[in-house]
Amino acid sequence: MIISKKLDLCYRLSFGKMTKWLEGLMKGQAFALKCENCKKVSFPPQKICLCGSKKNNWLKLSGVADVKYKTKGNDGNFAIAKFRGASTSSIVKLQNFNDQETVGEIISSKKSSPSMILKPKGKN
Amino acid sequence: MVYVTGYHLTDYNRRKDSSSFRDWVSETFEVSLTMSELDRHDIDTLIISSESDFFTLQLNPSAVIADDLGLTNVEAFRVEGGGASGQLAIHQGVKSILSSSSKNVAVIGFDPSASQLPSETIKKLYSYSFDALTDGMNEVTATSIYALSMQIFMETTGLGENDLADVTINNRNNACLNPRAHLKLNHTRDEIKNSPIIASPYRRLHCSPLSDGAASVILSKNISSRRKTAPSIIGIGSATDRVNLGYRNELGEFIAKTLAIKKACKMAQIRPNEIGLAEVYDAYAGAQFQAIRALNLSLDFLKDFRDGVFNSDGSLPVNISGGLMGQGAPAGAIGVGQTASCAMLLEGNYHDKLQMSKIPKYALADTHGGVGTLSAVSILESNI
């Protein structure tokens, strides 16, 4: 015997310190954390820097990123990209990129799923 | 000393027989218990591993399983660490015995990863097994993250498309000789290269399947006279790497494995080059190479692979079982099943056509969660 059982889960998520970052993504803005100690800039933001410091400040980046590696296929288009001004890289979703394009800019994402999405720089 | 006095794996496949994961757990436990020459009342501790309540729809499963198995009043708990859950459960069992907290521990891994939820739902859930805030919200799939890591690995090591095809062929060929394996398939390079691209460079046939299944081991402080050839676990180690791939210094390398095997070898007082067979975590074709390199099993992994060193008849067989790609991947069972497979091979009890005639002294079971993020390894020693 097999029965179908459907669960309808609707989470109410809140994000604490990361709220500023996620609100930025919804607006197409890139907020990073800059370590007060070693000055490294993390994007996505790291609450504790690799140097061990917990002291950091929010920093708004330009939102322009250099795409280093791309993957595409049935699962979608994603890349490892480094936002200009950041010391770390990020995994981003690519929108309307062709194989040659390697520079992108962040665009706003839907409210239900704030995420790092890049479109080619200068393209609408 | 920690002896593996009992071990067993169920079939790994997609169940269509209306059986439940609780049936598979009972099946594997009873076989392991009988082999261990123990009575169920000899078991002090039950440790279970399953990756997600989403898969089983059973929260707080350890007490339920204890009841199912007739293990009344035992210590029981669940261990979870993504894909590494099973190996981490083994570690807790080893620690329980070494601390004299228990004499006999049953470790059982299971998951109905294939039959209870649609594969698209599982894929979405797995996005949340990386960093839910970043990767999860971005809906990036596990295959895409592994693919990005693999691109970098291929660029730095010279690994090519033919190598990805050949390791797939090897593992599935091994699976053809493993009666309990999920994907018993004989591929050609062309078939693999023409299968749909899921996330470049990974194609459908480079991916491990979602499987149902369970595996178990009985770990014991002492052995009876009839279990004198039971293998021992002599080293365990685990470590983490950064969850976000972009935070890592080496985006194509599985550094956590290097740290984990270093700890395990230190405990076992052996070196990685003394290991004579390995079951490694090949969630994708390329992950097998990333594992072999990170575990320091070879000075030149690519040359050794192309020379057949890691084949089932090579000097260091890797994934004789077929690995995740061939044998299958019921998430919570994987690490327990790898350890059980190593124990079988070290005691000469493996499937006829795959059992090594010359049994090595040491075997390695290597498991991870994330993209090589949470790594856990165990080293077993033969007592034949």
Task: Walk me through this protein's architecture.
The complex is a heterodimer of chains A (124) and B (384). Chain A is mainly β and 124 residues long. Chain A is 7% helix and 34% strand. Chain A has a 5-stranded mixed barrel with strand order 4-5-6-8-7. In chain A, strands 2-1-3 form a 3-stranded antiparallel sheet. Chain A is globular, with a radius of gyration of 17 Å. The mean pLDDT of chain A is 95. Chain B is α/β, with parallel strands linked by helices. In chain B, 37% of the residues lie in helices and 18% in strands. Chain B contains 14 helices and 11 strands. In chain B, helix 4 packs across helix 14 (334-347) and helix 5 runs antiparallel to helix 6 (132-138). The mean pLDDT of chain B is 97. The interface between A and B is medium-sized, with 34 and 31 residues.
The shape of chain B, in one word, is globular
> Proportion of β residues of chain A?
25-35%
**Structural class assignment of chain B:** alpha/beta
Distance between the termini of chain A: 53 Å
Give the SSE order of chain B as H and E letters. EHEHHEHEHHHHHEEEEHEHHHHEE
The assembly state of the depicted protein chains is heterodimer
Termini separation of chain B comes to 16 Å
Briefly note the structural class of the backbone of chain A: mainly beta
* Strand line-up across the major sheet of chain B: 3-2-4-7-1-8-11-10-9
Give, in order, the helices and strands of chain A. Answer: HEEEEEEEE
Low-confidence segments of chain B: none
